[in-house]
Amino acid sequence: MTREEARNKAREIVSKMTIEEKASQLRYDAPAVERLGIPAYNWWNEGIHGVARAGTATLFPQAIGLAATFDEDLLKEIGNVTATEARAKYNAFSGEGDRTIYKGLTFWAPNVNIFRDPRWGRGHETYGEDPFLTSRLGVSFVEGMQGDPEGDGPTAGRTMKVAACAKHFAVHSGPEALRHGFDAKVSQKDLRETYLPAFKALVTEAKVEAVMGAYNRVNGEVCCGSKTLIEDILRGEWKFEGHYVSDCWAIRDFHEHHKVTANAEESAALAIGHGCDVNCGNTYLHLLRAYQEGLVSEEQITTAAERLFTTRYLLGIMPDQHSEFDSIPYTETTSVKHIRLSEHAAEEGVVLLKNDGVLPVDICKTGTIGIIGPNADSRDSLTGNYHGTASHYVTVAEGIRKFAAINNVRVLYSAGSEIYEKKSEALAEDYDRLSEAEAVCRNSDVIVLALGLNESLEGEEMDTGNHVGSGDKTDLMLPESQRRLMETVAEAAGNKPVILVLMAGSDIDLGYAGEHFGAILDAWYPGEQGGTAIAKILFGEVSPSGKLPVTFYNSLDELPEFTDYSMEGRTYRFMKHHAQYPFGFGLTYGDIRVETVAAGFDAMSKQVTMDIGVRNRADRGTADVVEIYVKALEAPDDERLNWSLCGIKRVELDAGESGQIQIVIDERALESVNDAGEFAIESHCFRFYIGTSQPDEVSVMLSGKKPVELEITI
User: Fold this and answer.
1) Model pLDDT, residue 461
2) What tens digit of pLDDT does each residue of 546-576 get?
3) Which site from 48, 276, 315, 438 is most exposed, i.e. has the minimal number of CB atoms within 10 Å?
């Protein structure tokens, strides 16, 4: 069904409703309209890394771990699998008459906010700090979830599989504790160059069906009632035709915290007046009173209802509709194929930050493996937030034990510490597990130390949030209990190899670990099969190939205040100091290098096409990511200090194998943004860097490889 056909059907059915019925449909928990045969529908569903909060579903790595794959094709496949399981569950649930929360087909995912500051607790829900990477992965994920009903591909004209949602629009990345009344002040340059590109890509390229507004204000306007954001940019400039939904209870914030309205009626009027169609919350219960007071017109209510029923018709879920997805059985959830995809995603997302030769571990030459750490045998460290329930979890300890059992290797285990509490037993002394960790170290040949965070320490406002409830981090350090454990293990291990497996969703200070441990793996929150994937990498069955989607800073002193939304000094594009571990960095067990580059510029499309020759110089196969960065050389008003990512391509080569890839650089990569937020190609000369990392000094030093440089004049 085309959008125009769906819109006509929506207009027809909405025209039969009373104003009370129309207003009722703008709630996230829309009730049935029985006299018209319309069933109840709940718009609230979560799915940033698999179907969430609706029972058992395949649990993929958290979004930041998916971002570390730099793999557009993988994100599209995961989006498609998520949609398949969503349909399977919807068919089963609705067949049982269950149309309650988390049981529908409108998913509030992906989160394409820019992870501009490592303190933000929800940053691990995103695809990292770079607008280009976020755009490409977000577009792929949405295309996988929705299919391509409005395009010209193989699924054109078909029913939308599920409806995705780009959130949180816009300029939203903490602080969590202030979000309900915070006004994000942002320049037009930063707005257009950093905060909006991913949203624009999802709307104009992927035709995302929904956009969710953020809690905060932007330059004085509340996001869920912003003329600038919703009317002028989203629906005006970008021609968005889908529906707009508020973040949950964000409209209530208009009068309770932002103080831009006096009461709920005025808040409802402001939101719907600027195009917010669905209220996640209860403020739209006051719409009819606002209508009676002349604050809201029936036309505004009708328009919103028509947009929402257009989506329901596009999904093929109205009573008079049938679609090819109605026959997807419940058994499609957590299938072997889907679980294997989760495992593969975890493998691709693990980032090897350091390796002095201890990896991969030769298990055939190892007598005893010591596993230590509060995240070693923890399911919480696999999941991240906004997660579903897996049918089977494999922790790091369980993954290692499987390999060890096959090879008759002894395993010793100690949690060593709690994740942040000082002791494990109520009557014990502080740090009561350190002596056990020492014993494990002294009796093991190799030590795997699994540390990090979980959703109780970095997450949304209501999470533990370092014991103060905000969800944000206050620093880049691991909790004291884990720092003490690191020091204990470093001393007790002596010259024995120690491999740190970090499981967290953000930048953690790894200065001590880098000095004292032979290898560091960043595994993020790797999903239900994370332990299997990590074990495969530890023992060399799989080569790591992930890349950092965020910068690891040396100190927060290098960054502006958390509440400062200027991009100056933030992220790899604008930072003025060396990184501890740079964006885009990640080692492998192989040695893939860019050897040749041939580039051509098309004056008509303003695209640069690069044909790239790559070779694996190592004696073992591996995957890696070819990254292209660009810097304009003649744009005097371009304030970008550094280069920007403009092309990515995963490659996989056997030992000694060579290959050819092609990457097309879009015109947008050549454009600069001025202070007025206007895009233009202001330079005729550009320098491109083509390699497997950034061209910065730290990446070159850590990887031992320097990207190929190429200047192009257009």
Assistant:
1) 83
2) 999 999 999 999 999 999 999 999 999 999 9
3) 438
Confidence (pLDDT) at 189: 96
Q: Please give the C-alpha separations between residue 210 and each of 77, 257, 624, 652, in angstroms, as whole numbers.
A: 20, 26, 34, 36
User: CB 357: neighbour CB atoms within 10 A?
Assistant: 7
Residue whose tokens read 């989506």: 311
Query: What's the pTM value of the predicted model, to 2 decimals?
Result: 0.97
Q: Which residue has the tokens 């999903």?
A: 527
For residue 625, the SS3 value is: strand
Give per-residue pLDDT as tens, 577-618: 999 999 999 999 999 999 999 999 999 999 999 999 999 999
Q: Note the pLDDT of residue 464.
A: 55
By C-alpha distance, which of 276, 341, 405, 374 is closest to 144?
341
CA distance 266 to 251: 10
Closest by CA position to 244, among listed 274, 199, 206, 275: 275
Token pair belonging to 52 = 């969430």
Residue 480 neighbours by CB distance under 10 Å: 13
Both tokens of 359, joined, read: 């990896």
679-680 vs 446-452, strand pairing mode = unpaired
The yes-or-no answer on residue 247 being catalytic is: yes
Among 475, 467, 501, which Cα is nearest to 486's? 501
Could you give the maximum distance between any two Cα atoms of the chain, in Å?
Answer: 80
The answer to whether 534 and 501 have CB atoms below 8 angstroms apart is yes
Instruction: Give mean pLDDT, residues 491-515.
Output: 98
Q: So what CATH class is 3-332? A: alpha beta
How do 410-414 and 368-372 pair as beta strands? parallel
Q: Where are the domains of the chain?
A: 3-332, 336-550, 592-713
Residues with Cβ within 8 Å of residue 545, at least 6 apart in sequence: 347, 348, 586, 588, 622, 623, 624, 625, 650
Length of the chain: 714
Structure tokens at 220: 């004085």
- Which of 71, 117, 148, 247 is labelled catalytic? 247
CA 201 – CA 628 distance, rounded (Å)? 19
Instruction: Give bridge partners of residue 183 from the DSSP assignment.
Output: 217
Position 281 scores a pLDDT of: 98
Pairing of strands 658-665, 607-616: antiparallel
Closest by CA to 7, choosing from 317, 311, 318, is: 311
**The two three-digit tokens of residue 703, written as one number:** 């990887």
Distance CA 127, CA 648 (A): 14
Selection from 687, 699, 601, 593 nearest residue 640 by Cα: 687
Tell me the pLDDT of the chain averaged across its residues: 96
The whole-number average pLDDT for the span 219-232 is 98
Burial of 605 (0-12, 13-18, 19+ CB in 10 A): exposed
| Tens digits of residue pLDDT in 296-315 | 999 999 999 999 999 999 99
Q: In what helix (H) or strand (E) does residue 680 lie, and over which residues does it extend?
A: strand 679-680
Note the pLDDT tens digit of each residue in 148-188. Answer: 766 665 556 689 999 999 999 999 999 999 999 999 999 99
CA distance 372 to 91: 44
Distance CA 465, CA 481 (A): 16
- 592-713 shares the fold of 336-550: no
> Cα–Cα distance between 612 and 596 in angstroms, integer?
6
Question: Which CATH number describes the domain made up of 336-550?
Answer: 3.40.50.1700
Q: In sequence order, what DSSP letters do the residues of 293-344 get, joined into one string?
A: TTSS-HHHHHHHHHHHHHHHHHTT-STT---GGGG--GGGTT-HHHHHHHHH
592-713 folds as: Immunoglobulin-like (2.60.40)
Q: Report how far residue 473's alpha carbon sits from residue 465's, in angstroms, rounded to the nearest whole number.
A: 7
Give the Cα separation of 133 and 28 in Å (integer): 31
Rounded Cα–Cα distance for residues 327 and 546 (Å):
37
